[in-house]
Specification:
five-stranded mixed β-sheet; alpha+beta; about 15% strand
């Protein structure tokens, strides 16, 4: 098994694709998250609980694909489970990150209903730039059109609210207990 590369130190400039000869590239796809940008249209907030699992399943499968097959278009068709394709005709709802050109960006689809991830290839590394569970790079009425990301209501947030409510209930019950203990003590004294 090939050794997984260590994360690179954060650079001042953004990552840009290398001009690489693809014909003989038998390397398989690796993923990097050092270029991820979050904004009001591209983020993981508001995803269903299975989205991350589907993302990692997709990345695991795409990691088994040779780069030359991606550049040859073998995974770009609408019937391909990953629909890996370039973004030459997209109209992003926000600015692209510095030093990234739209024609260098690619999409890897998670599923038809769960959107995808957008990024660039540099050699065989796919640098994820945007998570797009809402289909915002290609908004369409079948997926609700262009949507700003909804802040999540996670199990942790729900748990924290429940813990706060339980703490308030405990405080009320302790006050009631103290009141009745004081009342009982007063009755004993009289």
């Amino acid at each position: 098994m090939k050794k997984i590369p260590q994360a690179k130190a954060k650079k001042e400039t953004r990552i840009t694709p290398n001009n690489i000869a693809i014909e003989n590239k038998q390397e398989k796809v690796l993923f990097s998250f050092e270029a991820v940008e979050k904004n009001e249209y591209f983020n993981l907030d508001g995803t269903c609980q299975n989205w991350a699992a589907d993302l990692f399943d997709t990345m695991q499968k795409v990691s088994g694909i040779e780069l030359k097959d991606i550049y040859a278009g073998k995974y770009s068709g609408k019937t391909s489970p990953f629909r890996i394709h370039r973004h030459e005709d997209a109209k992003p709802p926000c600015k692209l990150p510095p030093n990234i050109l739209l024609e260098d960006m690619w999409q890897i689809r998670i599923s038809i209903s769960k959107g995808g991830i957008h990024g660039i290839f540099s050699d065989n590394i796919f640098y994820v730039i945007w998570f797009d569970p809402q289909h915002n790079l290609y908004p369409d009425k079948n997926h609700g059109g262009l949507k700003k990301v909804i802040p999540p209501s996670t199990c942790c947030k729900d748990r924290d609210i429940e813990l706060e409510q339980l703490k308030e209930k405990i405080d009320r019950l302790q006050q009631d207990c103290e009141f009745w203990e004081a009342y009982a003590q007063k009755k004993e004294e009289t």
